[in-house]
Amino acid sequence: MTQVFNFSAGPAMMPKAVLEQAQQELLNWQDQHTSVMEVSHRGKLFMEMITQAEQDFRQLYAIPDNYKILFLQGGARGQFAAIPMNLLNKKGKALYLNGGHWSATAAKEARLFGDIDEIDILEQDETLQVKALDLRDIATQYDYVHYCPNETISGVEIFDIPDVGDTPLVADMSSNILSREIDINKFGLIYAGAQKNLGPAGITIVIVREDLIGNARPATPSIWNYAVQSKSDSMINTPPTFAWYLCSLVFKHLLALGGVKAVEQRNIAKADLLYQYLDQSGFYRNKVAKANRSLMNVTFTTDNDELNAKFVAEATACGLQALKGHKVLGGMRASIYNAMPIEGVEALIAFMRKFEAENRG
Ligand SMILES: *Cc1c(COP(=O)(O)O)cnc(C)c1O
């Protein structure tokens, strides 16, 4: 079988070691002679598994004790609604920083629940970049400020955490959670659908500072109420047990690799290799300013739709899968999340060189 590298933006590739372990344990988990997906979520072994998963995640991301970690359902989109239901209840206003598709979509959903102000934070000249932001003064009038530090579609990443003073900062980290070290103390709430960097689709992680729990509006459904979920170990209803188990294996795997610091170094090495190649090429172009180039989603184009389509078809035939860019942007996108080995990036660059040589006008 030829080696395949999967550059899908999400659901994305899983670490091979994790899939192998899951395969090995599939019919006999913890000597139960049954799989993990067939046991009670309230049983001793499952409870031990999730307790350890939370500890491992807390250790990996250096999450302080005054933050709760919830394992919920409904994806990032579920949180687009849950966040205003839980947090938009004192001043009744929130500020959303618009840096692309996902932050704009989050703002649109939040408008169902209250008064939302939006600031456009991108500027485009030769390249696409994030403006310098001075938010400390205006932030005081809001219950929270929301942003998306990694816009998965455009490949724009914000490395400097916005300074919003004492106002809670809320971040959609669906596509860059655990990709590099961050100071959790700077955030009120961080959330992420699992299917890019944590595990399979179906589970959503919310890291929330304790003082932000307990203010949900009265009509908040129990499954979206952080206080209720926090009191019930994220098990107000049957959780996605198999997805949770796979996340637990990913956490252990990342710890064994040396934790987030080591993973960050690998991610920087992978992204540098690809961007350096793009920058010296006169054939492909990445349109994001250097300071805002995503470590996770690398977008590029030949500026010719026909050539782009040919690129994607030939790359797929060579085992380099899912490189087609998002439909709103066109071009190509290589998603190189934690699970992508450097060999995948090297194989992509080798293919790009060959394609360039064969198709340069
Ligand atoms: C993929 C993605 C989403 C959507 O996640 P769902 O779990 O499908 O709701 C939201 N935000 C970002 C940044 C994403 O990358």
From TrEMBL:
Hey, which pathway is this one from?
Cofactor biosynthesis; pyridoxine 5'-phosphate biosynthesis; pyridoxine 5'-phosphate from D-erythrose 4-phosphate: step 3/5; Amino-acid biosynthesis; L-serine biosynthesis; L-serine from 3-phospho-D-glycerate: step 2/3
Catalytic activity annotation: O-phospho-L-serine + 2-oxoglutarate = 3-phosphooxypyruvate + L-glutamate; 4-(phosphooxy)-L-threonine + 2-oxoglutarate = (R)-3-hydroxy-2-oxo-4-phosphooxybutanoate + L-glutamate
Enzyme class, spelled out: transferase
Database matches in Pfam families: Aminotran_5
* Subcellular location(s) per record: Cytoplasm
Q: Which Gene3D superfamilies match?
A: Aspartate Aminotransferase, domain 1, Type I PLP-dependent aspartate aminotransferase-like (Major domain)
Cofactor binding mode, per the note? Binds 1 pyridoxal phosphate per subunit.
Q: Does Transcription show up as a keyword for this record?
A: no
> In the Enzyme Commission scheme, what number(s) does this protein have?
2.6.1.52
| Cofactor(s) of this protein | pyridoxal 5'-phosphate
Q: Which residues are listed for L-glutamate binding in this entry? A: 42
Q: Name one GO biological process term.
A: L-serine biosynthetic process
Q: N6-(pyridoxal phosphate)lysine is carried by which residues?
A: 196
Alphabetized InterPro entries for the sequence:
Aminotrans_V_dom, Aminotrans_V_PyrdxlP_BS, Pser_aminoTfrase, PyrdxlP-dep_Trfase, PyrdxlP-dep_Trfase_major, PyrdxlP-dep_Trfase_small
Query: Quick check: keyword Transit peptide in the entry?
Result: no
Q: Which family does it belong to?
A: Belongs to the class-V pyridoxal-phosphate-dependent aminotransferase family. SerC subfamily.
Instruction: Give the protein's function.
Output: Catalyzes the reversible conversion of 3-phosphohydroxypyruvate to phosphoserine and of 3-hydroxy-2-oxo-4-phosphonooxybutanoate to phosphohydroxythreonine.
The UniProt subunit note reads as follows:
Homodimer.
Name the record gives this protein: Phosphoserine aminotransferase
Q: Which organism is it from?
A: Muribacter muris
Q: Which gene encodes it?
A: serC
